[in-house]
Design a protein that fits this description.
By secondary structure, this protein is α+β, with helices and mostly antiparallel strands. Helix content is 37%, strand content 22%. The longest helix is centred in the N-terminal third of the chain and has 27 residues. The structure holds zinc ion (ZN).
Length: 490
């Protein structure tokens, strides 16, 4: 009886201790991020006319600067027209900034600051757009290359991705110049022309910067945005990309003796391949809260409901529950580990012939810190002992480095991003790729953010149908870029 009583006391004390730790850690949880500058101390946006900007965006959308997988299909004249249009529509910018053309159609604009010793700031926005899927035109409420202004939005392919940013940056520059602004620090604008295919333009721009010994303070490109309803807080959150995942493709090829399917041997290439697939998919990279994803949760904790706050503050105990919650959606799971997707399969070309080879293509998206060589080595180990070859396809893109959340660039971008929808701001991991990746050798920090508010359901319009930029979003984007340029270069 005394033993039981003692045992109960120990259990109760242990529970109380755990509870106390949970409470203390939750109470003490404050954003690890340094306090952001008060936006009221940052420059206000110079005057600009959003109606004119909307008309300009509509005009920009009408140039069919479509990047095709085969560049021979591109219509080069459309890029020339866009370049001429930029020069005519933004005369002050073209008078004050030096313009260069690189890698054919990629634009570099330089606004020299009067203190050349300061590291420049780089803004990026690509000119090219993805094609409109054949047969999907009828799904658009306004023609995809019409650039129509209707229902408070500019409609068309590229209205958001990424002519929305391109036009906003130029509107901001023009407004700043009209207002007599003169930068101390040099500003460079890079506009890639093939972001949607291979990004050679951004790489050429980066190489040109390196050759000139230019080291930028920070780069800001497209990427994440203000999500109208973030799953952690239930409200708007400005997500600024501090890293992007890498990309690698492996092909697994099973070998066997071929022959006629009337006398099949017990082992076949297809069966061996099936075993290999089973093993590889059974050995997925484990999920963990690390890097930018953990940083995002920690930044959002103060704005999250109590339960979520307790879980984030007590990852030592509740980490697995957090991971379970996040992995429930494919988008959430993709933030937690290197993903693998089985994409292409091939075996025999004929129904009654046993294949000598059967292969599967696996597309990986690499978490920062997980190198393509490590993924390849894992796959090799997993299929060891089977007659299966593992080969990496083409040149993998490694995951980016993770940019700082304590730099001056971060503070300015984060403070202004938070002001777009007066929301919390958090760093985030980009699942897709951007041109900004090419610039990481040029700048200390690379950020990925478009200053607009979209609901999760709106994201389908990017590369999908009914892409459109509301004038409200256009207005916030212009104000954001103008304020950022002035704050970062004054
Ligand atoms: Zn884009």
């Amino acid at each position: 009886m005394r033993l039981l009583k003692r045992l109960l006391t120990v259990i109760v004390l242990a529970l109380l201790l755990v509870l106390a730790i949970l409470v203390v850690r939750t109470v003490r949880l404050e954003s690890r991020f340094a306090a952001l500058p008060d936006v009221r101390t940052l420059p206000a946006a110079p005057p600009f006319d959003v109606a004119v900007a909307a008309r300009h965006l509509g005009e920009a959308v009408r140039f069919q600067t479509v990047s095709h997988q085969d560049p021979a299909e591109d219509d080069a004249a459309e890029w020339n027209r866009l370049h001429d249009w930029l020069a005519t529509s933004y005369p002050a910018t073209h008078a004050a900034l030096r313009r260069e053309l690189i890698d054919g159609r990629t634009l570099i604009y330089t606004w020299p600051g009067h203190k050349p010793s300061l590291a420049p700031v780089v803004l990026m926005a690509h000119q090219d757009v993805v094609p409109v899927a054949p047969g999907s035109e009828s799904g658009w409420h306004h023609p995809p290359f019409g650039g129509e202004l209707a229902d408070g939005a500019v409609w068309g392919r590229g209205a958001v991705d990424d002519k929305g940013s391109l036009v906003s940056i130029f509107e901001a520059l023009e407004a700043l110049l009209r207002n007599g602004f003169n930068p101390e620090r040099t500003l460079i604008v890079i506009s890639g022309a093939n972001e949607e295919v291979h990004g050679s333009g951004a790489r050429a721009a980066a190489a040109a910067m390196l050759a000139r010994g230019i080291h930028a303070e920070f780069v800001l490109d497209e990427g994440l945005l203000v999500l109208a309803r973030h799953p952690v807080t239930g409200g708007p959150v400005a997500l600024v990309g501090v890293a992007e995942k890498g990309y690698a493709t492996l092909t697994l090829t099973a070998r066997a003796a071929g022959g006629h399917s009337s006398m099949p041997p017990p082992e076949s290439a297809v069966r061996t391949l099936a075993i290999a697939i089973e093993r590889v998919t059974g050995a997925e990279a484990p999920m963990s809260l690390a890097g930018p994803t953990r940083e995002m949760l920690e930044a959002l904790a103060p704005s999250a409901p109590l339960l979520a706050r307790v879980a984030i503050a007590n990852e030592w105990l509740l980490g697995p529950a957090l991971i379970d919650k996040m992995r429930a959606t494919p988008a959430g799971a993709a933030m937690l580990h290197t993903t693998m997707a089985l994409t292409m399969l091939s075996g025999s070309p004929k129904e009654n012939v046993l294949p000598e080879r059967a292969s599967v293509t696996i597309n990986y998206r690499l978490l920062p810190g997980d190198a393509s060589a490590a993924v390849e080595a894992r796959a090799r180990r997993t299929v060891a002992g089977l007659p299966v070859d593992v080969a990496i396809q083409g040149t993998p893109l490694e995951a980016s480095v993770v940019s700082s959340t304590s730099s001056r660039g971060w503070s300015l971008i984060a403070a202004l991003a938070a002001d777009v929808a007066r929301s919390p701001v958090a760093p985030g991991l980009m699942i897709g790729g951007t041109d900004a990746r090419a610039l990481q050798a040029v700048a200390a920090d690379v950020y990925r953010f478009q200053p607009i508010v979209l609901a999760a359901a709106d994201l389908a319009m990017l590369h999908g149908t009914d892409e459109r930029m509301t004038t409200a979003n256009l207005e916030s984007a212009i104000a954001f870029y103008a304020r950022l340029i002035e704050a970062a270069t004054r």
